[in-house]
TrEMBL record:
Keywords: Phosphoprotein. SMART domains: REC. The keyword Phosphoprotein applies. Transmembrane segments: none annotated. It holds the Pfam family Response_reg. This is Response regulator.
Length: 120
């Protein structure tokens, strides 16, 4: 069973994402509420995929991607969730090691489809 980390500072959005993913029954889902917690969990957790909010306290999703070890980058698909969807933001995310960029708002169905595609 694949393991997913959901890192977002919005309690409500994080809860909605976690509930949506857990309903699928295909994944073990864990949470982080800021960038520092996300980085710590990524370095020790053995995740297959991480959903990272761009704008988080402590560290942004980009900061997390830049600081995470090469071993984690090799093992974990890093996905950016963000309202910042301009091309320069996408380019910055790609350069940091983001595998996929999902602009907010997104539908739960779209999120599940993308995750299944990335983990297949």
């Amino acid at each position: 069973m694949s393991k997913i980390l959901v890192a977002d500072d919005s309690d409500i959005l994080r809860m909605l994402i976690v509930d949506t993913l857990e309903e699928e029954g295909e994944w073990v889902v864990e949470e982080a509420e800021d960038g520092r917690e996300a980085l710590n969990k990524l370095e020790t957790g053995g995740y297959d995929l991480a959903l990272l909010d761009y704008m988080m306290p402590e560290m942004t999703g980009i900061d997390v991607c830049e600081k995470v070890s090469p071993a984690v980058k090799e093992q974990t698909k890093l996905v950016m969730l963000t309202a910042k969807a301009q091309e320069k933001d996408r380019q910055e995310a790609r350069e940091a090691g983001i595998a996929y960029f999902i602009p907010k708002p997104f539908s739960p169905e779209e999120l599940v489809r993308i995750i299944k595609e990335l983990l297949s």
